[in-house]
């Protein structure tokens, strides 16, 4: 069979994604594949088989029955399940493929339970607990974070989101219009701006891993850590904006219709399911499209790094001119 990997004149390069990552469309296709929620339903045996295919291929061990299509399918499941730097299996709720189903349910609560104190506290606590798991799971490289720092990040983000939501609720008290419905978005935007930098603050203090083209660690950069964390924070806020802004606008329009107003049962029971479905539709597209805003793995000329990092790299035998880093998700 001509589709067998062993029959290819040029072997597929799985050290890089299947699609060109220098273009937005290529990154979007890659993330549509790796954030596919259906990968969550793969069995442990399937995941292990894909891991073996990928790791063996990297070592030059290629089955004579392996097709090119099977190789890329294995790589897609591997990317969705294992951390790109450490190679560790990621906790299933922390994978980007869990963003759509997990945030769909949470967003339905955030957008429906924003009027009462218990509703705000519960929904934002659940949301920040989920975000903390996602942020830690998708941290850059092999960075280690202490339990104390994790707990402080979690408390600050949860407290910030609750304070913003409750404070804004007070400003628009008794207002059941669009302004009140947009409060959850403002609260989670603030929480993301707190949670992500704090959760990854050790990268700022210790520096982000820099590697050469052979994946060898050559140094650490605080400058790249700050840039990467800023990009991830922007991506997460952009990811939430369409469904957390458009969903309230649509729901606000629905509540003004005669059909809705003349049916008390709809007013009582429909908000959470309607907004959950709308959020799910939005998340299916915004998760991969916003993950693709910036390259996950980027390269930078050594001359553009901090002076001390340049000096450290220059002392290496055959120092690289360009280094690579993983900004995380």
TrEMBL record:
Gene Ontology annotations for the cellular component aspect, listed alphabetically? mitochondrial inner membrane
- Give the bilayer topology: Multi-pass membrane protein
- Which reactions appear under catalytic activity for this entry? L-serine(in) = L-serine(out)
Q: Name one Pfam family in it.
A: SFXNs
Its main subcellular localisation, reduced to a broad class, is: mitochondrion
TM ranges: 105-126, 151-171, 178-198, 225-251, 272-295
Under the heading InterPro entries, the entry gives: Mtc
Taxonomically, which superkingdom? Eukaryota
**What biological-process GO terms show up in the record?**
serine import into mitochondrion
User: Where can this protein be found?
Assistant: Mitochondrion membrane
PANTHER family from the xrefs? SIDEROFLEXIN, SIDEROFLEXIN-3
Entry's family note? Belongs to the sideroflexin family.
UniProt protein name: Sidoreflexin
Q: Which organism is it from?
A: Caenorhabditis nigoni
Per UniProt, what is the name of the gene that codes for the protein in this document?
Cnig_chr_II.g4224
């Amino acid at each position: 069979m001509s589709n067998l990997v062993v029959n290819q004149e040029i072997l597929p390069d799985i050290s890089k994604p299947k699609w060109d990552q220098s273009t937005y469309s290529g990154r979007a296709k890659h993330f549509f594949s790796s954030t596919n929620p259906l990968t969550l339903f793969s069995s442990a045996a399937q995941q292990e088989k894909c891991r073996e295919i990928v790791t063996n291929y990297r070592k030059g061990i290629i089955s004579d029955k392996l097709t090119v299509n099977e190789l890329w399918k294995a790589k897609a499941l591997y990317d969705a399940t294992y951390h790109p730097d450490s190679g560790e299996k990621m906790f299933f709720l922390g994978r980007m493929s869990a963003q759509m189903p997990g945030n769909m349910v949470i967003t339905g609560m955030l957008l429906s339970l924003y009027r009462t104190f218990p509703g705000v506290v519960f929904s934002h606590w659940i949301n920040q607990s989920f975000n903390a798991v996602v942020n830690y799971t998708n941290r850059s490289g092999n960075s280690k974070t202490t339990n104390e720092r994790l707990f402080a990040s979690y408390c600050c983000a949860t407290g910030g989101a609750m304070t913003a939501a409750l404070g804004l609720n007070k400003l628009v008290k008794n207002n059941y219009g669009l302004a009140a419905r947009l409060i959850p978005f403002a609260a989670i935007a603030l929480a993301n701006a707190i949670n992500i930098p704090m959760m990854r603050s050790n990268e700022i203090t210790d520096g982000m891993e820099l590697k050469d083209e052979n994946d060898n660690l050559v140094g650490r950069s605080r400058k790249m850590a700050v840039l990467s964390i800023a990009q991830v924070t922007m991506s997460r806020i952009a990811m939430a904006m369409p469904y957390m802004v458009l969903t309230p606008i649509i729901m606000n329009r629905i509540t003004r219709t005669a059909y809705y107003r003349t049916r008390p049962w709809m007013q009582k029971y429909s908000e959470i399911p309607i907004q959950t479905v709308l959020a799910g539709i939005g998340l299916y597209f915004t998760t991969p499209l916003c993950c693709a805003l910036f390259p996950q793995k980027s390269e930078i000329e050594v001359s553009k790094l901090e002076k001390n990092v340049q000096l450290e790299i220059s002392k290496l035998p055959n120092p690289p001119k360009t280094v690579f880093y993983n900004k995380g998700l």
